[in-house]
């Protein structure tokens, strides 16, 4: 059923684009009702505006904590226009009809991010605003609720196209968006109070995009989040569920590397990576590790991709490329493949939340993200043989890579180049054998290379196999009751070993 807007209650924290809405409401001869600073703003634009105080007979009290909380306000919003008894009551109590509510909420999360005092934080818990949102949304049969400046544009479009009228679907949509705002707001407040000893999981993520399908074609898939806040898509087809998983893995991996680097990922694991003086050199070294797996993979660089690098990268097929900057001539080359996804990673953005989540059984597992990164100063030498500076640099490089490789994981590296990795094996020995076999299949000389393990060695078998393959230095977390067996083997055969004290399982 169509409803006409005759009166609007407006009380907002953010005033941007409000002038455009006011002009449209004024043209439609809509009565304006407001409070405090919003009323002053409306009047400064040259429009008549009744105050809530004049309607209720009460001023704003308790330092602004109570302004709109009154039966004459909420009665005007909540009364059912098709209910005869409701109509009689609002008439008898002189309650004005309110058909449109425009309100937003105090910036609670913004205040949290500013390291405010608890008193300042508490005062940013909105009472009147959240009550107005819930009331107007509940009565969507008769009332339009605009609960955020993010809904200003749909309201403007409605006012222009329908001249102050709305149908039920319009009002239901605004109500749905309003409850999204209120639920997210309450989630933020709950998480603030629940932060010390979490008792329940509450998540609120705005934005969604339907995917062609999930991990497989028979599965539905949806991404919840603001992809565009982190990336600008410059070219290519729609991003898939599996693309998103690989993109997340790629960005998380590259975040740990400061030198000019390129990584190639397949199924969330790096199949190639190298750090070199130039992007092209890094690409050629990364590709060398496994040119077979690189086909159809994800390429990520942490520096500008120029024409020379693009020409080389473009020689093989890959689905996605990510970089912070592209030269124009480089883009022209990379765009030659119609469906290739080209993403610009926006500087200063963080794609990772502080916690990671995974469904399990009938619930959710949550944990802090593994943000631990080790440098040379974090490596404790436990053998008589001390690794050289070059080996130390390679050990740091390999340890960063193994952190982002599926467990059980072994990474072999040399000259800041991924030689090979063993991923997702049930045995660490199997992971090492897989890595050695792969390295040899691509004709790498393992002599002088290093090995990284994501967990300790319970037996000396891995270091023995590594030494026999030519590996000269090893990094591992340490912590096994039998660490000494691996250390003793290294001491007896001139292999250097360092421990980090940090395990990097990734299941």
Layout of strands and helices, then pairs:
Layout lengths: L2 E2 L2 E5 L6 H10 L3 E4 L1 H9 L5 E2 H5 L14 H8 L5 H9 L7 E4 L4 H6 L4 H6 L4 H11 L5 E3 L5 H11 L2 E2 L1 H26 L14 E3 L11 E3 L6 E5 L5 H14 L6 E6 L2 E7 L3 H11 L1 H4 L3 E4 L5 H7 L6 E4 L4 H7 L6 E5 L9 E6 L2 E6 L11 E2 L7 H15 L6 E4 L4 E5 L5 H14 L8 E4 L7 H9 L3 E4 L6 H11 L2 E4 L8
Helix pairs in contact: 1-9, 8-10, 12-14, 14-15, 17-18, 18-19
How would you characterize the overall build of this protein?
This protein has 507 residues and is of the alpha/beta class. The protein folds into three domains: 191 residues, 3-Layer(aba) Sandwich (Rossmann fold), CATH 3.40.50; 123 residues, AICAR transformylase, duplication domain (Cytidine Deaminase, domain 2, 3-Layer(aba) Sandwich), CATH 3.40.140; 124 residues, Cytidine Deaminase, domain 2 (3-Layer(aba) Sandwich). Helices cover 38% and strands 19% of the residues. It is built from 19 helices and 23 strands. It has a six-stranded mixed beta sheet with strand order 10-15-14-13-11-12, with helices on both faces. A six-stranded mixed beta sheet has the order 18-23-22-21-19-20, sandwiched between helices. The chain has a five-stranded parallel beta sheet with strand order 4-3-2-5-6, sandwiched between helices. The longest helix is centred in the middle third of the chain and has 26 residues. The radius of gyration is 30 Å and the shape is elongated. The protein starts with a strand and ends in an 8-residue tail after the last strand.
The CATH H-level homologous superfamily of the largest domain: Methylglyoxal synthase-like domain
- The stretches of 5 or more residues where confidence is low (pLDDT under 50) are none
How does the major sheet shape up?
6 strands, mixed
Remind me, CATH topology of the largest domain?
Rossmann fold
Percentage beta strand: 15-25%
**How does the overall form come out from the CA principal axes?**
elongated
Oligomeric form of this entry? single chain
How many strand elements? 23
CATH C-level name of the largest domain: Alpha Beta
Q: What is the CATH architecture term of the largest domain? A: 3-Layer(aba) Sandwich
Number of helices: 19
Work out the helicity level: 25-40%
- What is the distance, rounded to the nearest whole angstrom, between the alpha carbons of the first and last residues? 54 Å
Strand order of the largest sheet: 10-15-14-13-11-12
The assigned structural class equals alpha/beta
Radius of gyration: 30 Å
Mean pLDDT: 92
Number of domains: 3
């Amino acid at each position: 059923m169509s409803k006409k807007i005759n009166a609007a209650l407006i009380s907002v924290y953010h005033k941007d684009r409000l002038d455009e809405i006011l002009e449209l409401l004024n043209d439609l001869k809509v009565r304006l009702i407001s409070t405090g600073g919003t009323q002053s703003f409306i009047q400064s634009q040259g429009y008549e505006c009744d105050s809530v105080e004049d309607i209720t007979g009460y001023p704003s009290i308790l330092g602004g904590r109570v302004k709109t909380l009154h039966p004459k306000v909420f009665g005007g919003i909540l009364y059912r226009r098709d209910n005869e008894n409701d109509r009689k009551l609002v008439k008898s109590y002189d309650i004005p009809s309110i058909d449109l509510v425009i309100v937003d909420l105090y910036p609670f999360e913004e205040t949290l991010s500013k390291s405010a005092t608890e008193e300042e934080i508490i005062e940013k818990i909105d009472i009147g605003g959240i009550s107005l949102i819930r009331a107007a949304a509940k009565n969507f049969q008769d009332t339009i609720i605009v609960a955020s400046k993010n809904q200003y544009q749909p309201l403007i479009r409605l006012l222009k196209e329908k001249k102050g009228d709305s149908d039920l679907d319009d009002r239901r949509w605004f109500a749905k968006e309003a409850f999204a705002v209120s639920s997210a707001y309450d989630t933020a407040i709950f998480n603030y109070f629940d932060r010390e000893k979490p008792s329940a999981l509450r998540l609120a993520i705005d934005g969604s995009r339907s995917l062609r399908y999930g991990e497989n074609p028979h599965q539905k898939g949806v991404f919840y989040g603001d992809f565009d806040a982190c990336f600008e898509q410059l070219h290519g087809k729609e991003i898939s569920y599996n693309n998103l998983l690989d993109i997340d893995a790629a960005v998380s991996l590259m975040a740990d590397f400061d030198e000019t680097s390129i990584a190639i990922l397949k199924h969330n694991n790096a199949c190639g990576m190298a750090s070199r003086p130039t992007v092209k050199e890094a690409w050629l070294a990364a590709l060398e590790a496994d040119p077979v797996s690189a086909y159809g993979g994800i390429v990520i660089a942490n520096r500008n991709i120029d024409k020379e690098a693009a020409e080389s990268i473009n020689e093989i097929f890959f689905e996605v490329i990510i970089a912070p900057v592209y030269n124009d001539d480089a883009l022209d080359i990379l765009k030659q493949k119609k469906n290739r996804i080209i993403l610009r990673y926006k500087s200063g953005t963080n794609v990772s939340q502080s916690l990671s989540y995974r469904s399990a059984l009938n619930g959710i597992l949550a944990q802090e993200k593994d943000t631990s990164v080790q440098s040379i100063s974090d490596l404790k030498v436990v053998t008589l043989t001390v690794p050289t500076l070059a080996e130390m640099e390679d050990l740091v490089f390999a340890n960063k890579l193994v952190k982002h490789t599926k467990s059980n994981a072994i990474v072999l590296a040399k000259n800041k180049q991924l030689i090979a990795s063993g991923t997702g094996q049930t045995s660490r020995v199997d992971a090492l054998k897989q890595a050695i076999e792969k390295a040899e299949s691509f004709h790498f000389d393992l002599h002088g290379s290093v090995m990284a393990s994501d967990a300790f060695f319970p037996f000396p078998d891995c270091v023995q196999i590594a030494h026999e393959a030519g590996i000269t230095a090893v990094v591992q977390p340490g912590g096994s009751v039998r660490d000494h067996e691996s250390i003793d083997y290294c001491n007896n055969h001139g292999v250097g070993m360092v421990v980090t004290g940090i395990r990097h399982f990734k299941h």
